[in-house]
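A common beginner's mistake is to predict each chain separately and then try to dock the pieces by hand. The better habit, illustrated here, is to supply every component at once so that their relative placement is modeled jointly.
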Amino acid sequence: DQQVKQNSPSLSVQEGRISILNCDYTNSMFDYFLWYKKYPAEGPTFLISISSIKDKNEDGRFTVFLNKSAKHLSLHIVPSQPGDSAVYFCAGLNSGGGADGLTFGKGTHLIIQP
Amino acid sequence: DTAVSQTPKYLVTQMGNDKSIKCEQNLGHDTMYWYKQDSKKFLKIMFSYNNKELIINETVPNRFSPKSPDKAHLNLHINSLELGDSAVYFCASSQRSGIQETQYFGPGTRLLVL
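With all components supplied together, the output reads:
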């Protein structure tokens, strides 16, 4: 039972264009969402987060949008750069669930083409 | 000055052996976690440890046991290793602030059981 779904295993985008990574969740108890970036042979690195009381959070080239009614969030990267090529994981958290940890999606491999 | 560190980075061992993976965080966080990334690339929570309270994911076999000598360390001990234990194991730590909780991950330990 995947509570967090990233339906695109991979995404190829040209350098300079916008990258849009999508994520859907089913657990309505999630109230905090995070995006992590992962390079091969390294641990996930925190990128950006959003709480359920907001619908948008922006940090430099990265913007996360949350649509609670659709249980959908997306990560926008603009402009995309070669160093953005990595696997991106979406994660949900139930902050009232004690130390439950994050529930991750399967990841989307973003490839930025020159 | 790595925030979350794990040793060893690679571990190759025979079935039936007992092994430990060490994790240390220097962020002053009060919660630590172990995650497993299996061959299908899912990152799943195994344990969380907060102020001496251990929360276990019920799917984790009791051959796996976390040990925390102090707040900065959460080691993972595995008894009677099986082939299916081959995976990448990530340690993480966090400090909750309201509903916001960002987890920081170690580089991972790649375990191969032969």
